[in-house]
Amino acid sequence: MQLIDVAITNSALVTPSPAAEKWIKPLIKLTFPLIKNKSFAKLQAKTLYVGQEYFEQYYEDSSKMKVDTLIKILQENMSFAIPRDFSKAQCNILVTVGEKEKVNMKKSALHLVNSNLNCQGVMLSNIGHGVSLANPEFFNRFVEEWLIDGKLPEGKIIK
After folding, report:
1. Among 4, 101, 121, 140, which one is most buried in terms of CB atoms within 10 A?
2. Does residue 97 contact residue 9 with C-beta atoms inside 8 Å?
């Protein structure tokens, strides 16, 4: 008996970037005041596919964030690597990434797919980072279809 039967990873960054990681602290300290600027927050929310109906909550929450918290979050994000025993995972794993995401995200998806024989990967067309927010109906439908029927979402197969 295994603990997990299926898993989905969407837009996972698994290629550590030590060079970028060392610049996070000084850059965030320099740019942190922008977090309280509503115009900047609107641009950021748009990039993250935060809908207008959620913007005020997004702005309120991000405005409360402390600089050290944001630095820790970004450092953790930039330092994550595929676990040593990931290749031994026996469940079916769907790996997705948006076609409009940055190159390092696409490389991470490819690295995940090539690190476990049970991984299937799909690059989702016309989407950046945040498919579950950008198009929740599509996201929920493809997750359900994959879970129930094993059907891959529309997009380019990652090999």
Report:
1. 121
2. no
End-to-end CA distance of the chain: 29
**Mind listing the pLDDT tens digit of every residue in the chain (159 residues)?**
678 899 999 999 998 888 888 899 999 999 999 999 999 999 999 988 999 999 999 999 999 999 999 999 999 988 889 999 999 999 999 999 999 999 999 999 999 999 999 999 999 999 988 899 889 999 999 999 999 999 999 899 998
Task: For residue 73, give every residue at least 6 positions away whose Cβ sits within 8 Å of its Cβ, in sequence order, or none.
Answer: none
Would you tell me how many other CB atoms lie within 10 Å of the CB of residue 11?
21
Please give the DSSP secondary-structure letter assigned to residue 88: G
How far apart CA 89 and CA 5 sit, in angstroms, is 10
Query: What are the structure tokens assigned to 85, written together?
Result: 């025993």
pTM of the model: 0.86
Tell which phi-psi region holds residue 156, choosing left (phi > 0), alpha (psi between -120 and 50) or beta.
beta
CA 98 to centroid of chain Cα atoms: 9
